[in-house]
Specification:
The protein is an alpha+beta fold. 33% of the residues lie in helices and 9% in strands. The protein contains three helices and two strands. The protein has a two-stranded antiparallel sheet with strand order 1-2. β1 and β2 form a beta hairpin. α2 crosses α3.
Length: 140
């Protein structure tokens, strides 16, 4: 099982999968309770770990509930933002904020939950660090 790591404010580990997404109802507004958020789905064979003390509080206060966005909406924004994130991660000028690239394959279906959490983290990151990753304005 191969894993890809992103280390920095967020540890992003993915094991690739091409399965369909999970369905979440719009009233699913689950709160986070830990500074380490781990999303695992054995069936889809992926794992995401987010470690950031401020993200949990921000997520619980501002994140839209699951089902508010479609997976397509989340994937579109994630593609733009991850592309710019990776450009900055390779540029030494941004070394303190973008320590390593995120290995997010645009032709891989990571499912709803991975895209939802990545989207929310990237919104949080842009707002709290006064960054604009381009393409779309980050709004909670």
């Amino acid at each position: 099982m191969s894993k890809l790591f992103f280390i920095g404010t967020i540890l992003f580990t993915l094991v690739f999968s091409c399965q369909s997404n999970k369905n979440f109802s719009s009233d699913n507004n689950q709160k986070l309770t830990s500074d380490t958020i781990r999303i695992v789905n054995e069936e889809l064979d992926y794992e995401v770990i987010i470690i950031d003390g401020g993200f949990t509080s921000w997520f619980n206060s501002y994140a839209r509930p699951r089902g508010f966005y479609t997976q397509e909406y989340l994937e579109t924004r994630n593609r733009f933002w991850v592309l710019e994130w990776n450009n900055r991660a390779r540029n030494t000028r941004y070394l303190n904020l973008y320590e390593m690239p995120i290995n997010y394959e645009t032709n891989t279906n990571y499912g709803f939950e991975v895209n939802y959490m990545l989207y929310n983290y990237l919104v949080y990151f842009q707002i709290t660090n006064k960054q604009q990753l381009g393409g779309y304005i980050a709004r909670p």
